[in-house]
Design brief:
The protein has about 550 residues and is of the alpha/beta class. The chain has helices spanning about 5-15, 40-45, 50-60, 85-100, 130-145, 165-180, 195-205, 215-235, 245-250, 255-265, 300-310, 330-340, 375-390, 405-410, 415-435, 445-450, 460-485, 490-505, 515-540, and strands at about 25, 35, 70-75, 80-85, 115, 150-160, 240-245, 265-270, 275, 285-290, 315-320, 345-350, 355-360, 360-365, 400-405. Helix 6 packs across helix 8 (about 215-235) and helix 18 runs antiparallel to helix 19 (about 515-540). The protein binds one RNA strand of 76 nucleotides through helix 2, helix 6, strand 9, strand 10 and helix 11.
RNA sequence: GCGCCCGUAGCUCAGUGGAUAGAGCAACCGCCUUCUAAGCGGUCGGUCGGACGUUCGAAUCGUCUCGGGCGCGCCA
């Protein structure tokens, strides 16, 4: 139990369960102590009392507990500000050593099964940076939610059916014909030649000739899919399942859903097509399910796909989509509702688009203007760690500008190094200590020893305490980030944590002539190393031992 | 026109309804004979787009408004 939770339960006792919710938070200002609560102001109204009086009453009841709280102050409108005792602080820190590689993660709490679906790009070309952002955010969400106690599964929905694939096949064939010296009429509907051509070439190198249009299309599709898989896994983006859209058509799942929708009377025919009464479910217009040429739409297959997910026993479906797809949300949920499913179990995380900054100029990504930046291009220049960090750093709801020149820099301007460097510094200190004391065993994590951390001069004590408090924030940070589906919070937290450490490092020498102080500081460094490494693990970024 | 997202320092962005809004970059000034200077300290920089409202308290919640991005296909 954290010191905040302990204080919270003390307050609960003090107010005899009067309040609905007791909020204990770390104040922004240091002068306001280590923990604060607004409970007196919350209670003031219902109790018809002055908040300062209520605060005083609570203070009187709590001040006896000196093992937990060393002082209580009451401030302006009615805040109660607590200073936690050194021993309680050290006691909280012991969690880090007992939990180690599980520190910060939710323990022994089995929550529901969640399926996270993300990227789900068409196998019709290179992944662009927008996909890259979705890939990184999705994979971090998977890590984060699983560390927050959920049972996780991840999935890539392969859009290997329909119009885009037909286009791919036509484009590939045209490229092939052209390479054989035939005159080809290049349709405007084709994919850009330079995007597909390299794939076609590679396929043809291995393929046995002659080849039919269908065979070529299939092979190019499979090859592109394989390339995407490899590329994604090279930056720690992996999936438990690769789910083929085509399979839903083959196993009649799409047909079955259509039948059920018809039975529910939410469809009608118009202009030779079959429509879904999406407007009845809040959509801006009705949507086509079966085109006039009898081919099913993406929407129909997507409804079938989500029903398949539900049938597999998932209680929560998190889907990561590019923001340009937000218009599809209502119709998909409408389809599920129409068939009696609880559409609330589907939660879509929209990732805003990425624009680019190059040579100080912002450029919109556009296929036509030739300013599409691929995952491959950036990843090969900056490496997986910086790639992931850049794309996870800002909230998915925010449009982000990817500064290519900065990402390519690979020097100290690159923020990921700030965090990694903190970890490397920890490791370096341990290397030094081991060299000096080859026989020493590292079992410094006992409270009697650790209390030495805080028995130092004012400046050192302040830097040390800041670092301890920040380390202790980690578990709450994980829970909050998971709850808000905001893995970027972890990146932010780690930046602050690294900052507190760099400051500590500058002020406090770890290896000193005082053996007890040295050992206690080594233990703190170890706690930090564990915390950074567990945080980076959520982000899928390596924690280097030296840099 | 309607819907979704965003608007915070010159730039890129943090910021679970709390107290004096924070980083990084850029600019300027300092700090390496001791654990990695990929670091630390300092200066400069803000009517949190605007208005009104809810609240003891609003960058955060609500309404309106202005600005930007995206969407409103028998494409996905």
């Amino acid at each position: 139990m954290s010191y905040k939770q302990k204080i919270q339960s003390e307050i609960k006792n003090a107010v005899n369960g009067l309040a609905v919710e007791i909020i204990v938070e770390k104040p922004r200002q240091k002068e306001h102590g280590d923990a604060a609560t607004n409970i007196a102001m919350v209670l003031a109204k219902s109790q018809k009392k002055n908040p300062l009086d209520i605060a005083n009453e609570i203070k009187e009841k709590l001040k006896a507990n000196t093992t937990l709280i060393s002082s209580i102050d009451i401030a302006k409108p009615g805040f109660l500000n607590f200073t936690v005792s050194d021993s309680a602080l050290i006691e909280s820190l012991m969690d880090v050593y007992t939990l180690r590689e599980n520190y910060g993660y939710v323990q022994n709490e089995v929550k529901e099964k969640i399926l996270v679906e993300y990227v789900s790009a068409n196998p019709t070309g290179d992944l662009h940076l927008g996909h890259g952002r979705q890939a990184v955010i999705g994979s971090c969400l998977v890590n984060l939610l699983s560390k927050a106690g959920y049972k996780l599964s991840s999935e890539f929905y392969i859009n290997d059916y329909g119009e885009q694939i037909a286009k791919l096949s036509e484009t590939s064939w045209a490229i092939y014909e052209k390479s054989n010296g035939k005159e080809v009429i290049w349709s405007e509907d084709f994919y850009p030649e330079e995007g597909i051509s390299p794939y076609v070439k590679k396929v043809l190198e291995k393929a046995s000739l002659p080849i039919t249009k269908e065979e070529l299309g299939e092979k190019v599709k499979a090859f592109i899919l394989e390339s995407q898989k490899e590329l994604l896994s090279s930056c720690q983006v992996t999936f438990d399942q690769w789910f083929s859209e085509t399979s839903l058509h083959k196993n009649k799942a799409v047909e079955e859903v259509l039948k059920r929708l018809k039975e529910k009377n939410v469809t009608y025919e118009k202009e030779g097509a079959l429509w879904f009464k999406a407007e009845e479910f809040g959509d801006v217009r009705d949507r086509v399910l079966i085109r006039s040429d009898k081919r099913p739409t993406y929407l129909l297959a997507d409804i079938a796909y989500h029903i398949d997910k539900i049938n597999r026993g998932f209680k929560k479906l998190v889907t990561v989509w590019g923001a340009d797809h937000h218009g599809q949300e209502v119709s998909l949920k409408g389809g599920l509702k129409a068939l009696g499913y609880d559409s609330e179990i589907l939660e879509i995380v929209f990732v805003q688009l990425v624009s680019l900054k190059q040579h100080g100029q912002e450029v919109k990504m556009s296929k036509r203007a030739g300013t599409v930046i691929t995952v491959d291009e950036v990843l090969s220049e900056v490496g997986p760690d910086a790639f992931r960090y850049f794309l996870i750093e800002s909230h998915s709801n925010n449009r982000m500008v990817f500064d290519i020149d900065l990402a390519k820099k690979q020097d100290k301007d690159n923020p990921v190094y700030y965090i990694q460097y903190a970890h490397a510094r920890c490791c370096s200190i341990f290397r030094q200590y081991k060299e000096l004391n080859p026989e020493e065993k590292f079992d410094f994590d006992n409270p009697e020893l650790l209390i030495n951390l805080l028995k130092v001069d004012k400046e050192e004590r302040s830097a040390t305490k800041d670092l301890i408090l920040k380390i202790l924030d980690f578990p709450e940070e994980v829970v909050l980030a998971a709850k808000n589906r905001a893995p970027n919070r972890i990146a932010n937290y780690l930046k602050e944590l690294a900052g507190d450490f760099h400051q500590f490092y500058t002020i406090c020498r770890v290896i000193t002539k005082d053996p007890n102080l040295t050992k206690s500081r080594l233990a703190l460094v170890e706690a930090l190393e564990i915390t950074i490494s567990n945080g980076l693990c959520i982000l899928g970024i390596t924690a280097p031992e030296s840099m």
